[in-house]
Amino acid sequence: MNALLPKVGKALMGRFGARMQMRDEPIDRPEGNLFQPMAQGVGPYGPVPPTPLWKRLSATAGLVALAGGVVLGMAGLARAAR
Asked: CA 70 to CA 62: how far, in whole Å?
């Protein structure tokens, strides 16, 4: 999305990015800090599991549908303005 519509991506992440990354409950992780690294085999990004493919595809499809709706709406407005 950043390659096609960087301003839209920045606007969405600016509005919802922090809310999607924060939680109200405290996190207790005594393992995996700088002085005691995580055990081998945890994953390429540490203890964070990868995002499932269905979530990535559905988010992409939703954004494509939103962009298509915006384009069609703008075309309708341009046609009505004539």
From this structure: 12
- CA distance linking residue 43 with residue 32, whole number of Å: 12
pLDDT tens by residue, 10-38: 888 888 887 777 777 777 766 655 666 65
Mean pLDDT of all residues in 59-75: 92
Instruction: State the Cα–Cα distance between residues 74 and 71, nearest whole angstrom.
Output: 5
The answer to whether 38 and 46 have CB atoms below 8 angstroms apart is yes
| Cβ pair 38, 31 in contact under 8 A | yes
Under DSSP, the state recorded for 48 is P
How many other C-beta atoms can be found within 10 angstroms of the C-beta atom of residue 38? 13
